[in-house]
Structures are given as structure tokens and as C-alpha cells.
């Protein structure tokens, strides 16, 4: 049992200062009430701290495995900011030192949420006695994720000097980074070193296979695939064959690509008892997308039916199916899927309406896009910047610039942090307003985009200068927006 005393909570409720919070070590069965409260609150703008503080204030038990499980679940759902908030709450409230593993996880989350510079700053503050393999491996992961090759090589050298028992994962991170950087000679040299040390695993071969596929080295890929099929250490699964299929499609060999997709699907179907439900769903969705890319509608619907037979149908499956049908220009099928999603028990996911709005705009069905948006608003649904931005782009294509301007204005009013506008669409709307001598509205829109952080100060200044006639064109501004 570990006792912690609140540092954050005492500013919320003096009652918490006068008592210790017991952090039990016995993990509960199923979801706890605290997990439900945190996982239910998916608003990226909200903070997890009030939920945690209120929980303690109300006398709730603080159970260590539950908090760690919450961090893991949030991370798996890509809610990295929320996961970091919970991790930092534990740090700020704990009288005991965090383990090296906990510090490593926090380092990884800082890198994802605040960037590499802040992660390095955090690393420099870790006590020397705490720094070992786990923390070095986490730092290597940060460098690999941000594609910082030289820094990663320095840390990899330190890890090799430690000679830990389990370092295959670090080698694999370096292999992937070399592949991403196109350093295939270094990749092969490192993989040979792994073979000599007998530390290759299934992921090792998969990374190399991906590298062959991405570089369109079909001959190399086929040789490695044959080796993998004969090597018990290599993992040959649905993803292996889907990777090969993708490589064949990149070079225009649809026949061999289709054969690989068939092998991949057969593996999933034959191993249903050994492949977890979530992995099967991911496999079917991935294969469905690839079949849509080559125009195989029958396979898309077959895989959709398999997805629907996997317990509850998730929003991700609907989104994948809708995206596939849009690629196939199957308007009727897309509308049926949308209707099925709306009538089901799934939670509202703005990505699905956005996909349908995009589809209507792609097909030139602006009346349907407008009617759908009106129905969403009438039903009390909140649209985001992407919804209006896509409609604005469609209006521009249809030469309805007044409507395009109004839609782009709504885009920023309903946007979320991190969202970026379509650069050329925004610039064209500003151009139109300047041509109409509507300087006031042009500046209003630019001010909104700047205040919301959707364009940088440099881009804002450049476009304002254009509106006032101080520079002749907006070419540089368009390039700047894509870099913001």
C-alpha cells in the first residue's frame, strides 16, 4: 500500500490537505467508476484534473493499477493529452518516487503532446540514478517518432553499452527509422547484426518487408517473403500479405496484389480463434480499404458483412465502409450505410458526417450537402471546421463565392484546436473579398483564423498586406499556410 498526499487538490478543497489518500494496489475487476468518468469525457479541450480531484474529494479510493490502466486506455485511444494529465497528477500527488517504467511512459507522452524539445528537457531533469534501459528506450522512441536520426543513433549506442536482456524493440525502432530515412544500407547492416546476435523477431522481418514495399523493390520483397514463410522466427500473418499486396498495387500489378489480399483474408478467417476480436476488425477494415482502391466492390461488401458480425459495429467500421464506397462512387450504397449508422446505437462521430459532406461535394451534389448539414443542425449536432471548410471548397468549385466566404467564416467559428483550413480555399476567399473591395470582411475572417491559431502570425501579416495592396499576390501566403 502506498500513501500519497494531494498537492493539486489542496487548492480545490482544504479537506483534502488534512488527510492522506490511500492508493491501493489491488486491481479491480471490470471498469471502475473512476475509469467510467474519465473515459466517458472525450472532449479534447477538457481537463482530467477536476475529475480526479472531485473523485478524491468525494472519498473515492485511489487505486494504483486503475490509474495506470486509465493511462494505458487513454494512450491506446490516442488521447495522449488526457493520459499525460493523469500521469502528471500521479507525479504531483505522490510522496513515493515513480518507477523507471512510469517515468519512461511519461517521457513518451510528453513527446507526443508537447514535442521533442519538451521531452528532452524532461529527460534532463530525471535523476541520474533512475536512468536506465527503460528510460533510454523511451527517449529512443521519442527520437524515432520525430525522425531525429543522429540523436537516435547516440542513444542507441548508450543502450548497446548497457547490454540489456531485451533490446530487440530498440533495434526494431532503429530499423524503422533507417527505413523512413531511406538509409537502406544502414538498415541491412543493422539487421545483419541482429541476425548474428539471434535477436530478430516477427516485427524485424515485417519492418524490412515494409521497407522493400515502400521503395518498390519487388524482387527484394518477394525474396524476403519466401524467407519469412520458411523461417519459424518470422511472423507471417494477414498484415504480411497485405503489405505485399500494397507493394504490388504501387507498381500497378493488380493481379498479384489481389492474390495477396486473398491470402491475407484467408489467414484472418482461418485463425478466428487465435486472433483477438479487435485485431480481426482492424484486419477487415484494412483489407476493405485496399479492395476499394482497386475497385473491387464485391470484396468491400463481403468484408463489411464480416465486420458487422464482430459483436457491435464500431464507428471506425462505418467510417471505413463509407470511405470505401465514396472511392467506388457508390452514392446509393453510401447513403444506405449513413442511414444504418444514424439508426444504430453508435455514438455521434463528426468524422462520418464530414465524410458524407465531402462525398456530396465530390459528386457535385451541393443541394444534398446543404440539406444534410441543415438536418444535422436541426438535430442539435455540432459541426466542426472541417464540415464547413469542405462545403466552402465545393462552393468555390461551383463558382458560388459568396456562399464560399460565408462557409469559411463558419469553419473558423466552429473549429477545434489543431485544425487547419484548406490553404488554397482560404486564400481564394480572401482574393474574392479583395476584388469585391470588402476589406472589412476579409480582415474579420483573417483575424478569426489568427485568434484561433489556425494560421501563424507570419501568414496573417502576409495576407493582410495583400488585402491592403502592399504586395501583389498571395502565392507565398498559400505556401505558408500549408507549413503552419
From TrEMBL:
GO terms for molecular function: mRNA binding. InterPro entries: PPR_rpt, TPR-like_helical_dom_sf. One of its GO terms (cellular component) is mitochondrion. Keywords: Repeat. The keyword Metal-binding does not apply. PPR repeats lie at residues 167-201, 349-383. It comes from the Eukaryota. The keyword Repeat applies. NCBIfam families: PPR. PANTHER family: OS10G0501000 PROTEIN (PTHR45717:SF10), OS12G0527900 PROTEIN (PTHR45717). This is PPR containing plant protein. It comes from Medicago truncatula. The gene is 25487644.
Amino acid at each position: 500500500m502506498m500513501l500519497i498526499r494531494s498537492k493539486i487538490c489542496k487548492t480545490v478543497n482544504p479537506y483534502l490537505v488534512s488527510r492522506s489518500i490511500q492508493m491501493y494496489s489491488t486491481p479491480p475487476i471490470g471498469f471502475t467508476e473512476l475509469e467510467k468518468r474519465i473515459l466517458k469525457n472525450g472532449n479534447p479541450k477538457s481537463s482530467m484534473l477536476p475529475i480526479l480531484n472531485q473523485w478524491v474529494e468525494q472519498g473515492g479510493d485511489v487505486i494504483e493499477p486503475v490509474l495506470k490502466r486509465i493511462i494505458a486506455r487513454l494512450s491506446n485511444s490516442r488521447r495522449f493529452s488526457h493520459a499525460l494529465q493523469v500521469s502528471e497528477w500521479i507525479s504531483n500527488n505522490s510522496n513515493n518516487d515513480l518507477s523507471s517504467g512510469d517515468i519512461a511512459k511519461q517521457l513518451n507522452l510528453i513527446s507526443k503532446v508537447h514535442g521533442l524539445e519538451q521531452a528532452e528537457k524532461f529527460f534532463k531533469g530525471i535523476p541520474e540514478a533512475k536512468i536506465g534501459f527503460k528510460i533510454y528506450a523511451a527517449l529512443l522512441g521519442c527520437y524515432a517518432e520525430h525522425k531525429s536520426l543522429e540523436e537516435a543513433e547516440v542513444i542507441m549506442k548508450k543502450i548497446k553499452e548497457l547490454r540489456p536482456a531485451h533490446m530487440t524493440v530498440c533495434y526494431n525502432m532503429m530499423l524503422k527509422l533507417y527505413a523512413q530515412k531511406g538509409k537502406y544500407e544502414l538498415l541491412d547492416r543493422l539487421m545483419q547484426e541482429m541476425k548474428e546476435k539471434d535477436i530478430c523477431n516477427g516485427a524485424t522481418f515485417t519492418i524490412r518487408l515494409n521497407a522493400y514495399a515502400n521503395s518498390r523493390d519487388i524482387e527484394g520483397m518477394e525474396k524476403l517473403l519466401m524467407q519469412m514463410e520458411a523461417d519459424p522466427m518470422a511472423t507471417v500473418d494477414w498484415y504480411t500479405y497485405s503489405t505485399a499486396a500494397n507493394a504490388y498495387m504501387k507498381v500497378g500489378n493488380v493481379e498479384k496484389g489481389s492474390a495477396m489480399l486473398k491470402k491475407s483474408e484467408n489467414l484472418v478467417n482461418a485463425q478466428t480463434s487465435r486472433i483477438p476480436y479487435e485485431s480481426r476488425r482492424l484486419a477487415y477494415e484494412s483489407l476493405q480499404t485496399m479492395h476499394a482502391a482497386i475497385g473491387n466492390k464485391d470484396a468491400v461488401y463481403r468484408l463489411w458483412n464480416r465486420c458487422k458480425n464482430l459483436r457491435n459495429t464500431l464507428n471506425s467500421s462505418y467510417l471505413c465502409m463509407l470511405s470505401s464506397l465514396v472511392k467506388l462512387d457508390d452514392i446509393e450504397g453510401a447513403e444506405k450505410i449513413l442511414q444504418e449508422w444514424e439508426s444504430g446505437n453508435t455514438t455521434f462521430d463528426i468524422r462520418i458526417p464530414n465524410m458524407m459532406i465531402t462525398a456530396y461535394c465530390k459528386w457535385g451534389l451541393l443541394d444534398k450537402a446543404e440539406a444534410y448539414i441543415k438536418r444535422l443542425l436541426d438535430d442539435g449536432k455540432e459541426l466542426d471546421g472541417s464540415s464547413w471548410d469542405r462545403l466552402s471548397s465545393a462552393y468555390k468549385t461551383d463558382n458560388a463565392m459568396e456562399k464560399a466566404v460565408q462557409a469559411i467564416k463558419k469553419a473558423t467559428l466552429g473549429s477545434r484546436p489543431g485544425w487547419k483550413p484548406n490553404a488554397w480555399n482560404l486564400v481564394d476567399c480572401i482574393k474574392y473579398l479583395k476584388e469585391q473591395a470588402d476589406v472589412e470582411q476579409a480582415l474579420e475572417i483573417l483575424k478569426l483564423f489568427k485568434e484561433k491559431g489556425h494560421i501563424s502570425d507570419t501568414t496573417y501579416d502576409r495576407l493582410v498586406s495583400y488585402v491592403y495592396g502592399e504586395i501583389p499576390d498571395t502565392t507565398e501566403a498559400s505556401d505558408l499556410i500549408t507549413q503552419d
